[in-house]
Specification:
mainly beta, eight-stranded antiparallel beta barrel, 10 helices, 10% helix
Length: 965
């Protein structure tokens, strides 16, 4: 729950408690008359006479009595009747008046039980002070000022009212307060303080401070098991805890701005180490709760066994019930089961440990690692029980490591470890796996080291990389090879995700450590993620060098390969990323530059980075060298960089950006410098622009330039030819016309070898075939302004009808599409040339019916058949099993029934495709009655561009029956 939602929930419970308190007071007190002293003020008719004293009431009333007393005639704060408007329900009000009399001003907090509604009224010019008053352990003080007066109402359905003045109210309670058991878990504070402030221009706020907070979180029995005496109170410096509530940020801890705050407390015992003590606000069943938790590790006395607890603690409800005092309810204290429980055993030669913990998705994760001397076994498992969001899911990662040097394979290679991964109702999340590889954390999945110590991050990484997915199954073997005595280590896993659409993932890690992998001077780590999806088809490979260094100099960078087929084929090969102006293809991740940091320290640094990429329509490369040679802010800085981009489709264009500079600095300020930033674009026309600057002390000179040359020749380019000249011979080709055989045979026809050969050549047509007409000369249904990259008059090509024996109008026939190069048919801006894909799908033809096909001359065929007899088969016997028949029956099918089943079924009802209309978004009134685009582009909006003046946001493409008439 977020702080705003928590504030709304707590405020709702406080309002209900206040409404109950006021309703009880109104029923128990006599109805007062009007207060004569309010006449002539903003309180006239609203503020009623004062009551003699505060009567008994619910828990909120008794809390007011403890802090302010009985509110009798001697009290600076009095209890009055209140009616916020004529005819409104009767309420009560707390009134602070000037000791000199009502003429000095009043501040009123009125509460009406219907809502409830809170009214804050301060008479104009009032400057009131409630000096510190003490009632037992409680003390109270307040100041209120409002030069122009203050009259505001707060309640359900009322808009927020800005403060009309300043107010500060402070309540303090001293003395030790304890909630919990005397010999077990509980919390205690040295005192509490409540402050409510309001200032013009800032939101009103309330702060609750818990002074000297401490807690005991372990039950007495568990404390004794760990060797801790008593109730295991945590020791440490006093921990001030402040809760802050305001409309802007909600209810949260002031120190962190969230719903939890760390505590500087520790468990006090010789063999116990604790960490991560925290206080947290939670909600359970609509009830706010205060939770205290701590993580601890302890060795059990007299045993070679240590125990680890993650976030063990207690939870106390915060109650606002009329019968109980507002605050913590110790009678309903609840112990929190640890989020994680781990053990570690050391009995030479056997050692190991394990952990079980809860996961954020309400599941469980477990890890175990055991060293048997001759073999080290590791297992990590995730389990999530079924709920309304998903089915039961399970993921297991198993690994077995052989002792050094492993199982020798020859040529210096050795098998170091084997393992596998199995998941049920789990899938592979490509984004999370890319993040693991990019961060150099592929070992979280591939044979993790120090598994028990890193259990939390390993379980978290597995849960994010392989999330729950109904009906998906993961299976994959893993192995690790080493060479040269572990100087080179190669880990790999081939993970299959099933069933269809199936895909294969390759996860790998290459680690080179020289001269010794334990203390390497050179450490090169390459994390690899590969993906193969046959259905698309797609091959993808990501390599990251994160976590590498050479003699302390960091080496970073990523490489990427993508080969995608299908309707939107793509090829991408990159080392270090892309040109800053290049728009990456869809689903291609951003890549880190190839970098080497030559930084020996003491103010000297040299960073080099580079990239190179090849895509379907572009080549790009670039790099940068950055020097920083400064000591105590004095020295030299310099840089030199270049970015080059060459685009070949849809039209050829290039852009080269060069930048360089050097500066001399003294005590952090620049003394002198020179810089150049230059860009060249082209060709025809050429465009050079940039800026140069020279700086010496306080003298700066900058020169901006923007030059164009090589404009297009005076003679206009030769216009493109008429598309009909190319379209006519294209449609005359036999490849433009094709008869598509049905995907499934529905007739009883058996074709001879000669007939099959003629079907393949296209000279014979299958009786159930459909006619396909398609071309690649010009896209249909969209306006074009270029043809074969030359300008032509704006025109749109469509198919009107197809004649196959009888004319078939294009309306109602399904459309076909092909891939076209946009630069050959459309005028593109420079930015569009750089970002537009190399190919786009556009309509190219139609699929026609075979109603008018010419049927050949009939001839006799051999339609005879043979009838055979077989002896009856023995009855199959099955073992008894719930849900299955005991025996299987076999039924005969007559020849007539088989012939009837062979016949081609005729459609009893044919559905005509709906027509499309353009309607106004707000009223669905038709603007274009029929824009059916059966032979146009797949993008209907492109096809109707220019036909309406309204923006696309104001229009809606719907089926004709939906429009208003």
């Amino acid at each position: 729950m977020d702080p705003h939602a928590l504030l709304q929930q707590v405020a709702g419970q406080l309002r209900a408690l206040a409404a109950d308190a006021v309703d009880g007071l109104v029923r128990s007190l006599p109805e007062p008359g009007e207060d004569p002293s309010a006449a002539g003020t903003v309180l006239a008719g609203r503020l009623l006479a004062a009551h003699d004293k505060l009567p008994p009431g619910n828990s909120l009333v008794e809390l007011v009595r403890e802090t302010l007393g009985d509110l009798d005639a001697a009290s600076p704060v009095r209890l009055h009747g209140w009616r916020r408007a004529p005819g409104a329900p009767l309420g009560v009000a707390l009134v602070l008046a000037d000791p000199a009399g009502a003429a000095g001003g009043r501040a009123v907090l009125g509460v009406t039980p219907d809502g409830p509604v809170f009214d804050v009224v301060v008479t104009p010019g009032a400057a009131l002070t409630l000096p510190q008053t003490v009632h037992g352990p409680w003390s109270a003080e307040a100041t209120v000022t409002a030069a122009q007066g203050w009259d505001a109402a707060f309640g359900p359905g009322l808009p927020p009212a800005p403060p009309g003045g300043s107010a500060a109210i402070r309540l303090r309670r001293t003395g030790r307060l304890t909630a919990g058991m005397t010999d077990g878990p509980g919390v205690s504070v040295d005192g509490i303080a409540l402050a409510v402030t309001s200032e013009p221009g800032t939101p009103s706020a309330a702060e609750l401070e818990l002074r000297g907070f401490t807690a005991a979180v372990l039950p007495a029995a568990l404390a004794r098991l760990l060797g801790i005496g008593g109730a295991s109170p945590m020791s440490g410096p006093p921990a001030p805890v402040v809760l802050r509530a305001d409309r802007a940020a909600g209810l949260r801890f002031a120190g962190t701005g969230g719903l939890n705050v760390p505590l500087p407390l520790r468990l006090n015992a010789p063999a116990v180490s604790s960490r991560g003590a925290a206080l947290e606000l939670t909600v359970d069943g609509g009830e706010p709760r205060l939770a205290v938790s701590v993580s601890a590790s302890a060795g059990l006395p007299g045993l070679p066994l240590s125990v680890h607890l993650e976030r063990a603690g207690i939870e106390l409800p915060v109650t606002f019930a009329p019968a109980n005092r507002p605050g913590l309810d110790p009678s309903r204290l609840r112990e929190l089961f640890p989020d994680g429980i781990g053990t570690e055993l050391k009995v030479p030669p056997i050692s190991g440990g394990g952990l079980v913990r809860r996961t954020p998705d309400e599941g469980y994760g477990g890890l175990i690692s055991i060293d048997l001397g001759v073999l080290r076994v590791q297992a990590v498992a995730l389990f999530r029980p079924p709920d309304g969001k998903g089915p039961t899911s399970f993921l297991a990662l198993l690994a077995a490591r052989f002792p050094t040097p492993g199982i020798q394979l020859g040529l210096g290679f050795a098998l170091d470890a084997v393992g596998g991964l199995v998941g049920v109702n789990r899938r592979a999340d490509l984004t999370a796996l890319q993040q693991l590889v990019g961060d150099g954390n592929a070992d979280h999945v591939l044979f993790p080291d120090r598994a028990v110590e890193r259990a939390q991050e390993i379980i978290g990484s597995l849960g994010s990389a392989f999330p729950v997915a109904s009906g998906r199954v993961l299976v994959g073997p893993m192995l690790r090879l080493n060479w040269g005595g572990r100087m080179v280590s190669l880990s790999g896993a081939l993970i299959l995700e099933l069933p269809a659409p199936a895909r294969a993932l390759l996860l790998g890690r290459l680690l080179v450590g020289l001269p010794d992998p334990d203390v390497p001077l050179v450490r090169l780590q390459a994390s690899v993620l590969g993906r193969v999806e046959p259905a698309e088809p797609l091959v993808e490979l990501l390599v990251s060098l994160s976590g590498s260094w050479i003699v302390g100099l960091a080496v970073r960078g990523e490489m990427y390969l993508l080969v995608r087929g299908g309707p939107q084929p793509e090829f991408v090969l990159s080392a270090g990323g892309f040109h800053p102006r290049y728009a990456r293809p869809a689903r291609v991740p951003a890549l880190n530059r190839l970098q080497v940091d030559l930084a020996p320290g003491q103010g000297w640094g040299l960073r080099m980075e580079a990239y190179f990429a090849v895509t379907s329509n572009a080549v790009m490369f670039g790099g940068q060298v950055q020097l920083d040679a400064t000591i105590a802010g004095c020295g030299v800085t310099g840089w030199l960089g270049m970015d080059a981009l060459f685009v070949f489709d849809p039209v050829f264009a290039f852009s080269v950006h060069v930048r360089a500079g050097v500066a001399v600095r003294a005590f952090g300020r620049r003394l002198a410098g020179i810089a150049l930033d230059f860009t060249l674009e082209g060709p025809a026309p050429w465009h050079a622009f940039g800026t140069g600057s020279i700086s010496v002390l306080f003298w700066d000179v900058e020169l901006d330039f923007d030059v164009r040359w090589g404009s297009p020749p005076a003679v206009r380019p030769k216009p493109g030819r008429d598309p009909i000249e190319a379209l006519t011979p294209e449609l005359a080709e036999s490849k433009a016309w094709a008869a598509e055989r049905p995907t499934a045979e529905r007739t009883a026809l058996v074709f001879t070898g000669e007939a099959n050969e003629r079907l393949n050549r296209g000279t014979l047509v299958h009786p159930d075939a459909t006619l396909r007409v398609s071309q690649r000369v010009v896209p249909l249904g969209v306006p074009i302004t270029r043809f074969e990259r030359r300008p032509v008059p704006a025109q749109t090509w469509t198919v009107k009808e197809i004649t196959l024996g009888v004319p078939q109008p294009a309306a109602g026939l399904p459309s076909l599409s092909e891939r076209f190069v946009p630069g050959e048919f459309f005028d593109l801006t420079e930015d569009a040339q750089l970002s537009e894909p190399a190919f786009i799908s556009r309509a190219s033809g139609l699929r026609a019916r075979g109603d008018g096909a010419v049927v050949g001359v009939g001839h006799r065929v051999d339609d005879g058949y043979e009838t055979g007899y077989e002896p009856p088969l023995d009855e199959r016997q099955f073992s008894l099993w719930p849900g299955l028949f005991r025996r299987e029956s076999m039924f005969g099918v007559s020849t007539a029934e088989r012939l009837e089943r062979w016949r081609t079924p005729e459609a009893a009802v044919k559905v005509r495709p709906a027509k499309l209309s353009v309607a106004a978004t707000d009223s669905l009134q038709p603007l274009l009655d029929d824009v059916t685009l059966v032979d146009a582009t797949a993008d209907a909006w492109d096809a109707m561009s220019g036909r309406l003046d309204q923006p696309q946001e104001a229009l809606r493409l719907v089926e004709s029956w939906e429009v208003g008439r």
